[in-house]
Amino acid sequence: MIRNILIGVGFAALWSSASVATKLGILSADPLLVANLRFFVAGTLLVGGTHLTQPAARLPHGREWAQLLIFGLLNTTIYLACFVLAMHQVAAGIGSLSTAVGPLIIAVLSAVWLKRTLKWRELAGLFLGLVGVGVATFPLLQNANATPQGLAILMVGIVAVSVASVYYAAQKWALSSTLINGWQVLLGGVVLLPFTLYYADFKNAHFDLRFWGSVLWLAVPVSVGALQLWFYLLRQDAVGASLWLFLCPIFGFIFANILLNEPITGFTVVGTASVMGGLYLAQRKKTTA
Known about the structure:
Elements: H1 2-25, H2 31-53, H3 63-86, H4 92-98, H5 102-113, H6 120-142, H7 148-170, H8 177-199, H9 209-236, H10 238-242, H11 248-260, H12 266-288
Helix pairs in contact: 1-4, 1-9, 1-11, 2-3, 2-8, 2-9, 3-7, 3-8, 4-11, 5-7, 6-12, 8-9
């Protein structure tokens, strides 16, 4: 139990840092450039590192390529590309907060796809989490720190990653989680590459220290570290794992306030408290069962 809590908190802290890192990276270069380079760096490290340190590791074969391509398209190409593009129009705090919508989508998909029955505590926790998201987001929308278009792009990404999470939990994987992560990131980057080459603004890109710092943080602590923790949680229980996404806004607002001077208001505090209450209520059923 303690191990899962530490892994959940570690995942939430690392994953929420992506909003601030992305916000800094796109000050130097086009969002698609930041995203695509991140994918290739993370995928190369994971796949290359595994094969160098584990000579017995094998390449995917047969149906595994299709599984990895579907997973990478949803989890990397669509989700992370939408996330990076939305950061042009959305505050970093909202970027982290948006991940808290994922548990509801994952819960519904798990009930339909995995035939998993939702407990009343989980439903109540989801409700409190969504209320918290609405309360904390309200003043940011009022202050024009997010546009409707930016929020729509974010939601497309959240739906994609939620489907990806349930898809991952529903599949029988023979590869290690490290190789699954590495290949899905690489394949996701390959699918995104034609769009990057056609649409990205290369002329105004500045490959400075801020750019490389952003890309490396997104590639290593986030795409490698956080996703490895996420895959571990998903293998335990997709719905239980998704509830840790409610913790991301707390870290996200703290990081955005410290590094980007984004506001923390009374709405933020009340919304965060509701999110925390939802997380506690939904997780408590595991310790009292």
